[in-house]
Each structure stands twice: as structure tokens, then as C-alpha cells.
Amino acid sequence: MIQALSLTPVPAAAEALRAEVRAFLDDSLADMAPELRARSWLGFDAAFSKALGARGWIGLALPAAYGGGDRDAFARFVLVEELLARGAPVSAHWIGERQSAPLILRYGTEAQKRFYVPRICSGDAFFCIGMSEPQSGSDLASIRTRATPTASGWRLKGQKVWTTNAHRSHYMIALVRTSGTAEDRQRGLSQLVIDLKTPGVTVRPILDLTGGEHFSEVFFDDVDLPHDALVGEEGSGWEQVTAELAYERSGPERLYSSMVLFDTWLEHLRSENASDDASLALAGRIVGHLATLRSMSAAVTAKVGAGESPMTEASLVKDLGTELEQFLPLAIADALASAPERAQSPALLRTLAYVTQIAPTFSLRGGTREILRGLIARGLELR
Amino acid sequence: MNELLSEPFERLLADASPPDVVRQIEHGGSAAPLWARIEASGFLDTLVPEAAGGAGLSLAEAFPLFLAEGRHALPVPLAHTMTVRAALAAEGLTAPPGMIAIAPLTRSTAEGAVFCPGTPYGTIVDWILAATTEGWMLLAVADAERHVIGIHGSLRADLRWSRQPAGARASQHLLPWQEAGAAIAAAHLAGAMERALQLTVAYANERVQFGRSIGKFQAIQHQIAVMAEHVFAAHMAAELGFVAAEPLPQKLRVAVAKARASEAAALVTSIAHAVHGAIGVTSEFDLQIYTRRIHEWRADFGSEQYWNRILGRALLTSDAGSALDFMRAELVPPQEKTK
User: Fold this and answer.
1) Does A23 touch chain B if contact means CB atoms closer than 8 Å?
2) Which residue is closest to B235 within chain A, CA to CA?
3) CB-hemisphere CA count at 13 Å for A87?
């Protein structure tokens, strides 16, 4: 059975970065309303990403040879923590930095690394990930989008859906079938990088319940791709995707999605001098859970930094983290409506409504609760 | 904490305090032989400074020992005794020999009577550290009226002194005894919940129904996965509670530790018992040794709601600009403070 995570402090060298990041965010987020900052993961601002890239803050832990910052996982931990807790609009570069660049660096050719990664790090190339299809969600191995080998490379036919940012990204890395049939399941899958301007690609944004357009459906109608669209080995797509999702699950990303709402609520309580027992206990409960989860996340970061692959631990922290992120808006709504005589804050209510509506996605992206719990059970050696 | 210390300690507890010994002491057997072995092992003064003859470990370094006690449901107050001995040494005082327990509650009257209700280890302990708003005192249990509280298997007792005995060690120096008790309870909770998880995984893999082990059923797997999440969280929170420069812990970190571990207690015990079915509630099976204690420790020195209010008040009245700033300033230790 896996060992408990043990307290690991964030190293002083990584902490040293914090003041600089804060000064930058104080400046660039000064006039941003809380309901907009609450979008964070889904807040798309190409100029902000470009400015971040100019400071060397995209790909901070990636190798300098490919435009990265050559810092360790903890430096990135501090940076990401500041960005997310403040609600910086990180969406444009987020997927490229967290998943696509590490994937290309691990499995790509030297030419692919040199072509894509520096532009991800400078905030010039935005990526999305084509996994889900209309008939394939958690059962990812059942995908039907197919790439057939041609003389000049690949011909792609099929459809992806729920693809975050497809309508505003330059590239997609898609999991597609390159050999065999759906019955072969995990065998015969590959990852292709697709320039979304290629003829035959149609992207249609999907309006979400908050009135935003954060995900899309993407159609591939006989799209011709070059040989070097293939990332990694033909037929190894499943192993590669599994490794990619492990990057997705480690790090402090999975506890701060409702942080802007929490801070906005705390400000409201302070301004109203509210100190009823229920509000105090709720505020205390949330901050205690956050401190615990943040420490667990730091422990996972240390394991990743030491070259381990803490899949079970990362899944466990993510499941608990998204549970807290989703609990927050529900509990704050109850707390606010329990004292109707208190003055209301319209900005707080808008922030609350946005987070409440979008919160179900927190435990969908990167693997559902049920998938994570299956992984944890395996890590516990239930058999 | 070096493994040089925690491994022999783990072996000592496994050997000296297996479940059968826990059962014997719970049912009136003498705790003296077990205590004698522990005293002889030298672990009593782990936290006492080297200058005063101890091993000089910090609270954070000794965390694994406190955790191990919970894992073994140690039926004698080693953690309490270790902590009191260290705190007294820091005050320039020497603790008397014997078992010492910190009382979660002390009521005293103007006439000098002292009452400690439902005191952990009350049926076997030699000394009680009783804290009041005026300070603290170390009272000999031999001088007290002792009433067992009538809960099956519990070592708790109501202790009453008609007046404070002459010569009792006492001080007007206020020390965070409640915080110390709460931190210890959090570590014990985390340890006992780890054991409950181990037993639950083992049972789910052993027990066969419908032709396969019940651990193969997704409904069971997901419950145990959730249980593991909360056990891991309780461990981390308890460890946070032990980060302190002094021999006694820091209030707000203890608040996180005790609130989080106590909150986990309800869920962890109910899943553990649900998975075990009827065998889990028999006295013969070991699970109950841990789950009965988990419920006691959850309430000792303040439940989750008690500590969450303290934490919430500190957060709302703090000058920190954000919840993250508050966490970093008060709860999560920077690098230099953990050792």
C-alpha cells in the first residue's frame, strides 16, 4: 500500500520568486472584477499570456534549451499558486504549458521540440487537447477518429468534442486511431499534433451555462497532415496519454479554482463585521482544508521533483481538492442566504453564481471522480 | 525524525502492546508491566533537551512516535507524559516518575477543590496535569476520588480532589496545554485511522461474496478510496500541528490538525465498519480497538467545530491580504521552521 504523504516545505529558493510574481499581478489584475478573476483556468487573455511569457513565466520548469526557465517543480508551484489564487487569466497558455510541452519534450522528435516548445514558452502558441468524442468520454479507448497513412503523411477523419479552447488555439494534440479497430481498445492509438488552420478542420464553440464559450466541437473532414504530425510512436498513444494525464494531476492546480470566491466572501464578512459561529466555523473549515491540501500538493510536487511518478497520491489529492473547490460555492451560498438581513454585495453574488454554475467542470477535466477513485483503489492494492 | 528512532519505537509497541495487551488493560489488567517496559526503553524523555538529560528532539521530529502510538492504540499515556516532561524541563522543573495525563477539562472551586471529568487514562494514570485560567498544576491521582465513567472498555475516569494537596507542582505560567492535548489527539487519530484503513483494505481483499473478493466491487473500491483520501489528509494535518519551535505546539496549526483529523474520524469509522460488516463490531475483531478510540479522540480537547471556529476567527481578524497569505503566514511552515 502507498505511504502517507509527509510534510515537505516549499524551498526558500522557490519562495524567492513570489514577491516578483505578486508585484506583476498587483499591476496587471488591478482593475479586474472578482467575477472575471474567478474564471482563471477559463479566463482567456492572449496579451496576458504573452506578458507572462516575456517574463519567462511560461514553462518555468522546462529546459532552457527549449525556451523554458530551467527552474525546479517548486518554483513552478509558487508561480502557479500565485496565478490561480489571484485568479489570473491563464487559460490561453495553460494547456500548452502543463500538458503539451511536457508531452512533446518527452516523446517528440528534436525538430518537434525545437518547433513547438519555445513558442509555447513565449506565449505565442496555444494548445488544446483532443481526447473526448461524442461517444467516448471516460472510456477513452473507444475513440473513433481515425488517421490513415498516406504518401505524404496522414489523412484524418472524425470528430472531437468538449475540447477546451479549440476555437482559440493554434494547435491540437489529438488521440486518434491509426491502426486496428475499436475492438483493439488501447492498441493502435496514436497522438497527432494538428495545426488548426489546416483545410478540413472546422471548429464550433459550444455555449456553456454561464454564457461563456470555453469548449468546442471540432470536425476533421479528410484533413491531410504531414508525417511529422505524429508525436511519439505510432500505436503508443495510450501510454503517452496516461503519462500526460499524470502531469495534469500533479501540482497545486487542483485546489484553487474557488479561491477568488473565498477571498471575496471573506472580504464581505469583514466589511459586514459578521462573526456568527456558523460563518466562523465555515471559514475555518475551508482554510484548514486548504492548508492541508496545499501541503499534500507540495508533497506530491516533491515526489515529482525527485523523479517519482506518484500517480495514486496525485489522484487522491486531486479528488479531495476538487471536492473542496465544489463545496465552497455551495457552502458560501448557504452562509449568505442564512443571514438575509445583512447587506449584499453584487460583485460577490455574481462571483458566487459563476463559480456555482461552472463548478461541476472542476471534477470533469482531466479525469472524473470515478476514474480517479478507481486509480486510488488500484494504488491501495484492492483486488 | 530519523528512522533510527522511529523503527525501534515501532518494534517496541508492536511487541509490548499488541491488541491482546490493549484488551487486558481495558478490562482492568495492570498497566504497570507495559509502562515499565516503556520507561526502560528511554523514550520518555525524547523531547527533553539534551542538557537536561533527554534526546532533545523537536516536536516535529517526534511526530512519527505520536502517530505510531495511535496506530498501536497504546493504552498508556506515553505521548502525554513525554510532552509534559518536556514542557516542565523547559520551565526548569523536573517531572515526577510515573504516567502523566493532560486533562481535557478542569473545574476548580474557590475552596480549592478540583474536578477533572472524563479524563483519558484516568483509571491507570499516576499524575494529572490540570490547566486552569490561572495556570496549571500537577496532581497526584493517589489523592483523588476516582470514578470510572461506565463506558465499556474505556480507560476514562472522573477525578476529584477535595482540595489541592500540599506540595503539588503548580505554576501561574500559562502554557498551551489544551493545544498540546489536541495535537496529540490529532496524531493519535491519524495513526489509528491509518490502521483502520489497513484493516479495511485487508478485509476487502479477503472476504469473498458473489464469488469474488468484495474489494473487486467498484462500490466498495470507491468507498475505500474516499476513506484513504481522508486518512491521508488527517495525517498531513496532524503533521502540521506538530510544527513548532517550542515543546508545546502552536495554536492555529493545532486548530488545522485537530479540526481536519476530527472531521475525517466520522467518515473513516463509518466506511471501515460498513466494509467490515458484522465482524467489525465484535469484540474479538481488532477494528473496534481503533474505532472506539477514534470517536473518543475526535471529541477530546475540542471537536472539528470547536477548532474551525477558532481558525475562522483568526482568519477574519487577520491582517493578511488573502486566505493564501494567511495560510502561508500562520499555518503552512516555511522551510526553516520545520526542523
Assistant:
1) no
2) A4
3) 21
Q: Does B264 touch chain A (CB under 8 A)?
A: no
CA distance A21 to chain B (A): 14
C-alpha cell at A142: 473507444
Q: Nearest-CA distance from A77 to chain B in Å?
A: 13
CATH of range B177-337; options 2.40.50.840, 1.20.1250.20, 3.10.20.600, 1.20.140.10: 1.20.140.10
pLDDT value, residue B339:
41
A74 and B CB contact within 8 Å: no
C-beta atoms of B324 and A296 within 8 A: no
B61 touches chain A (CB under 8 A): no
Judge whether residue B337 has pLDDT over 60: no
Which residue does chain A place closest to B329, by CA atoms? A291
Domains located in chain A, CATH noted: 12-125 (1.10.540.10), 128-236 (2.40.110.10), 250-379 (1.20.140.10)
* pLDDT tens-digit series, residues A212-250: 999 999 999 999 999 999 999 999 999 999 887 876 776
Which ipTM value was assigned to this complex? 0.96
Q: Which residue has the cell 490502521?
A: B195
A-B CB pairs within 8 A amount to: 176
**Residue A83 in contact with partner chain B when CB distance is under 8 A:** no
Q: Which residues in B65-104 are b (16+ Cβ under 10 Å) and which e? A: bbbbbbbbbbbbbbbbbbbbbbbbbbeeeebeeebbbbbb
What are the boundaries of each domain within chain B? Answer: 102-174, 177-337
Query: How buried is B30 (Cβ within 10 angstroms: 0-12 exposed, 13-18 middle, 19+ buried)?
Result: exposed
